[in-house]
Amino acid sequence: MKFTVPVSCSACKCDFKTLGYGELTFPPAICPQCGQTIHLIDPLTISIVAERLLYRSQAELESGDFTMPIICSAMAVETALTRVFLKWREIKHGFPATATTEADRKTWEKEYRKGVGKGGFANSANFVSNYLTGKSFDDFVDDFVKRSKTVTLIKAGLTGAETHMKTAHISSELFNRRNRIMHWGNVKYEKDDAQKAFVAALNSFAVLKVMDKEKADVFDRELRAMSARAR
Q1: How far apart (Å, rounded) are the C-alpha atoms in residues 64 and 52?
Q2: Residue 83: φ, ψ to 5°
Q3: Are 39 and 30 within 8 A, CB to CB?
Q4: What single DSSP character describes residue 22?
Q5: Which of 3, 52, 139, 155 reaches 20 to 30 Å from 20, CA-CA?
Q6: DSSP state of 64
Q7: What gap in Å lies between CA 127 and CA 18, rounded to an integer?
Q8: How many whole angstroms separate alpha carbon 183 and alpha carbon 121?
């Protein structure tokens, strides 16, 4: 899978894009303006594959393909949902140190499929959200927006209306369009359609990253409490 990665040169402040591939490490990028060699690393994230699918979605959108961005955006969100659940099952299983086996992963995959039931974004999002936070996806969004300052929301990548962060909007703008591609063969989408789908994917991914961060903070406090009791 090919995709483009946004790069900012620290030497001359030139913003440009470089090419990346699938799960491979990024090759060094060369600034087209000053020739500086820039070594790239993946961001800390819940899913590298999901991040790269979003890069691919944006690249397709910018190139004028308005069907592939919808498909790639939906795949990115589904990947992130599954991966963040499995990640935390692995963490909980492996503390204290316990090797994760292939049988463990298959068990957790079955747990995920059973948890999401008939599928659909809302079911998947609520299952994962409840596992990570004890709240439904929309309830978590409500709570996070209420207790966050504007700068906190911006840093989290959540800059639109609160309703745009919720399951109904994300389902409508992203997954309904993806389903029409996959089930109806509808590939006659316009730029505005693809852009709305991409933004919906960014919002859902941003919410999942906030959940992951808060889960990590809770886990860290639990570890500190355990350490204190052991002294």
Answers
A1: 19
A2: -65, -40
A3: no
A4: T
A5: 155
A6: T
A7: 36
A8: 16
Residue with tokens 């393909």: 65
Candidates 6, 175, 147; CA nearest to 77 is: 175
Whether 133 shows a pLDDT value over 60: the answer reads yes
- pLDDT, residue 21, reads 64
Cα gap 148→80, rounded to integer Å: 23
| pLDDT tens digits, one per residue of 115-127 | 999 889 999 999 9
Name the 3-class secondary structure at 30.
strand
> Confidence class of residue 98 from pLDDT cuts 50, 70 and 90?
confident
- The reported pLDDT for the residue numbered 94 is 80
174 with 73: CB under 8 angstroms?
A: yes
- Contact indicator for 118, 70 with CB cutoff of 8 Å: no
Which amino acid, 188? K
Beta carbons of 204 and 172 less than 8 angstroms apart: no
- Per the document, the length of the chain is 231
DSSP state letters, 204-219 = HHHHHHHHHHHHHHHH
Ordered alpha helix ranges (H), the chain: 48-63, 68-93, 102-116, 121-133, 137-146, 150-155, 167-170, 176-184, 191-230
* Predicted confidence band of residue 158 (pLDDT cuts 50, 70, 90): very high
Q: Are strands 37-38 and 29-30 parallel, antiparallel or unpaired?
A: antiparallel
